[in-house]
Specification:
By secondary structure, the chain is α+β, with helices and mostly antiparallel strands. It folds into 2 domains: 5-219, 2-Layer Sandwich (BirA Bifunctional Protein, domain 2), CATH 3.30.930; 225-272, SH3 type barrels, CATH 2.30.30. The protein is 22% helix and 30% strand. The chain has a 7-stranded mixed β-sheet, sandwiched between helices. A 5-stranded antiparallel β-sheet has the order 11-10-9-8-12. Helix 1 (17-23) crosses helix 4. The longest helix is centred in the last third of the chain and has 22 residues, at 188-209. The radius of gyration is 18 Å and the shape is globular. It comes from Candidatus Eubacterium avistercoris. Pfam families: BPL_C, BPL_LplA_LipB. Keywords: ATP-binding, Biotin, Ligase, Nucleotide-binding. Its EC number is 6.3.4.15.
């Protein structure tokens, strides 16, 4: 097994069910939980627990992921003791065509939580990344799954790089951590609890109309893509344009020479013209 010890701070904070419960302010999010030292993927573990009867609000966390999942089949580096690797299970209260908006809600929750607990000001990179100084500090993966009874559920996986002091060479140019950006004393239990609390608040507003109409203005204010020239990589080909912001359904509006195009998530990737952002 690979030794991750050089990447762990000397005074590692305690991340456990007991510590999380000390900070938790939610009504339902994370009130039931499964903490593991190591797992292939918290999304996969949540999927397995769903088949055994787990339900709305379950939180799965791990000290380390051996096969962390990102969007579009990408992996997600999740070394031991370095970050928050967690998945929140939701009952399918939202309509199927609204599920992708939950990724944006979680992005807002992570961004707000980091702002509240550190002196850092991260931005949101549509649709699922949180960035600091042009590098990714958090990724989010939302999946729609079926329970053993055939009922829809939603998994929202969150990976926050907290204490990482280094990254694999293939990630070093586009990944960072709260530690590397100057927040050396982050308590992972407190941050995870704040993320869940903020998500619960945003989710309540979202469920009024099952759209982002009450949240669009706040999202736009933190959107790093806004008014930037971007390249949209879609299954049918790539194109360039200027990102204008999002609409009430969470789609990214991109002005192109042919007109304004509405970009939804899924298999689409958006990059800056000169790099990741």
């Amino acid at each position: 097994m690979k030794d991750d010890s050089r990447n762990i701070p000397k005074t590692e904070d305690v991340f456990s069910r007991e510590e999380l419960e000390r900070y938790l302010k939610t009504v339902w999010a994370g009130r039931t939980s499964c903490f593991l030292e190591e797992v292939d993927s918290t999304n996969e573990e949540a999927r397995r627990l769903l088949q055994k009867g787990a339900d709305h609000g379950l939180l799965v966390t791990a000290g380390k992921q051996t096969a962390g999942k990102g969007r579009r089949g990408n992996g997600f580096s999740s070394p031991a003791g370095c970050g928050i690797w967690m998945t929140l299970l939701l009952g399918r209260e939202a309509e199927t065509d609204r599920v992708s908006m939950l990724t944006l809600l979680m992005g807002m929750a992570v961004q707000k939580a980091i702002c509240n607990l550190t002196d850092l000001t991260p931005r949101i990179k549509w649709p699922n990344d949180i960035v600091l100084n042009g590098k990714k500090v958090c990724g989010i993966l939302t999946e729609l799954v079926l329970s053993a009874e055939g009922k829809d559920h939603i998994l929202i996986g969150v990976g926050v790089n907290v204490h990482n002091r280094k990254f694999p060479p293939e990630l070093a140019d586009r990944a960072t951590s709260l530690f590397l950006e100057g927040a050396a004393d982050v308590n992972r239990s407190a941050l995870a609890a704040e993320i869940l609390y903020q998500f619960e608040l945003y989710y309540k507003k979202f469920m009024v109309r099952q759209d982002l109409s009450e949240l669009t203005e706040e999202y736009q204010a933190n959107l790093i893509n806004k008014n930037q020239e971007v390249i949209v990589h879609a299954p049918k080909g790539s194109y360039r344009g200027t990102a204008l912001g999002i609409d009430d359904r969470g789609a990214l509006l991109v002005r192109t020479p042919e007109g304004i195009r509405s970009v939804t998530g899924g298999e689409v990737s958006v990059r800056g013209v000169y790099g990741y952002v």
